[in-house]
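Render diguanylate cyclase in 3D.
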Amino acid sequence: MINVTSLKLIGFLLLIVMFTLSAEEQLNNAPLLSDTKPAVQSSLLNNDEPLPVNARILSLLELSEKSPGQAEQLLPKVDDISHSFNAAEKYLMLIIRANIIRESHEQHKAINWLKKALSLEDKIATMQLIQPQFNQIHTKLANCYAQIGQYELAYQQKNNYLDKYRDYRKFLREQRLAKLNAKYDTDLKVKANELLKTEHELQHLQLKETEKEVAIQQRNIGILLITAIIFIALLIRQLKINTALKQLTERDNLTQLLNRQSCFEQGELLSEAALKYQHDLSVILLDIDFFERINQAYGCVIGDELINAISQLGKESIRPRDIFARIAGEEFAVILPQTNHEQAKAIAERFREKVQQYRYTYQEESLQITISIGVASLSQTEQNFDALVNAADEALMAAKNTGRNQVCSYIKQD
């Protein structure tokens, strides 16, 4: 026979199990964000205390995201008290300046402000640096680098942001778990005392023990399945991000044509194949005539639209097998596999005529644009792609120097 003391002990242990499971369930359903004060949060991550930040700086940071122009007007008022700023406040002020300068598309200046901010990180607590107001600096740098075509640096800054974001999420989880543990430790003691006063509940718990064990096993299996699903979802998301970043490194951001690096990689492969199988290979280089004047007269937005127009006209002029790329601001390249010099000249002339016939209307004014083209073939050069591009560039310079809006062929010097 089981005596009363044994029944009490068994009931006490079962109740501890019940409340432990209840605490785990509430932990899984708890919100991820924490309302703990920053000073308390910091102590769990490292021994450094976060630096205080003036509320005016936080308001100005938010305004610079939504309305950089208004933020620029208010900036001098905050600068008046900048002599008393600590490292964290200086850090945010540099981000604000970068937000304002990016509005005028001066990406290089914005990058310089953001780099200055990063130089202050060793003076700021790690916990503070992973907060959203601070870790956003890496996404801003990534966007700036992407705008100027430095995609490897953009990819690196995206990774830096993800590292800090993971640290921040990990800290919030630890914070939440600590709060729940403290809360439910107290609850367990209260319930244990109540259990000692109610002997009839012990008998009921003893009868339900087997059912609860089965329920625990089933729930553990469910948790494992949910964890596996979340892991697979995160893996798929990471693969999509990697694919998008690869696309950024291969394509021109404005026209979605191949960029310079991808163009040269394709050119090397095609030139090697042409030499191996004794095929013809030609290259066309073209430049928009007087493009700087257009930018100065009508602005960069109109210039970008004209570059896109040239891109579309080029796609209509070349064949599906040809490689079309934007290799510089207003300079394009076309690689023509299995194409001799005369055929390449004909394609180039068709392209030039299409552009000459095209009209762009701006504020009821019809703008005509023209292009200069240089053509070279592999048989004329030193049998490698770099030499072929240089030859086409010489022909392009000849087209510019002799009047523009024409196609010139490379003439090999004896």
